[in-house]
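FORM 7B: Structural annotation worksheet

SECTION A. Query
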Amino acid sequence: EWLPKLASGKSVGCFGLTEPQGGSDPSNMLTKAEKKKDHWLLSGAKMWITNGSNADVSIIWAKTDDGVIRGFIVEMGDEGFTAPEQKGKHSLRASVTSELVFQDCKIPKDRLLPKAKGLSGPFSCLNRARYGIAWGSIGAAQACFDAAKQYSLERIQFDRPIASFQLIQMKLATMLREITKAQLLAYHLGQKVDSDNWIPEFVSLAKMNNVDIALDTARVARDIHGANGVTSEYPIMRHMNNLESVKT
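SECTION B. Predicted structure
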C-alpha cells in the first residue's frame, strides 16, 4: 500500500526512533507497544523527527511487552497520535522537524513490521543515512569553497583582489586539499558498499571526518568573506548552521 506512494513522491513518510531521554542511546526506549486482542496500543513520544508533522505515514519503533523493539506503521489521523512541529530552529530551517506523541494510539495488528526485531532494523536504515551524509557534507564544503574562491577574486583590498595574497591562497589550497581527501574517503567507502564489503565503523569514520572538514571549510570560508560572511546574501552561515545539526 505505502511503498509505491512513497517511491513516487505522492506520499511523505517519516522515521520515528529518537526519544527525548534517549538521544543516541535508542536502547533506552520508553515508547511502549502493548498487545491487545486485535490491535496494539502505542504510548510514548519521539523527538527531532524530520517530516513528522506533514508525513502521511510514520515508521515508529517501540518496545513490546516482552522488551523487544519492533517497528509499527502509524498513519496520519490515527486516534491518539499527534505531531506538533518544533519551532525556533537555527539549523535545517527548510525542513519540518516534529515531536511525535502517542497516547494509547490504536494500531491494527497488520501494521506490525513482521521481520524487524531489535535494533538491527532501524540501525540498517541509520547506517545508510549516515553514508549519505558522508557524501552530502562534501557538497556543503564544496559550495563554501566555491563561494570563498569567487568572493576572493572579486573583493578588492589594497588595490588588488584578496585572492592575490598568499594568506588567502593558503586558506583556499588547504580547503581544497581537505575536500579532495574527503571525496576520496567517501569514494573508497562507496566501493566497499557496492561490493557489500563494509561495516558500520567505516560509515562512522567517513561521516565524522567529512562533516568535520566541511565545518572547518565553512568557518574558513566565512573568514575569507569577512563581515559579509554572516549575511544571508552569501550561503556560508546557512551551510555552517546546517552542518552543526549533521555533526550531531
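SECTION C. Observations
The chain is about 45% helix and 25% strand. The mean pLDDT is 96.

SECTION D. Sign-off
Analyst initials: ____
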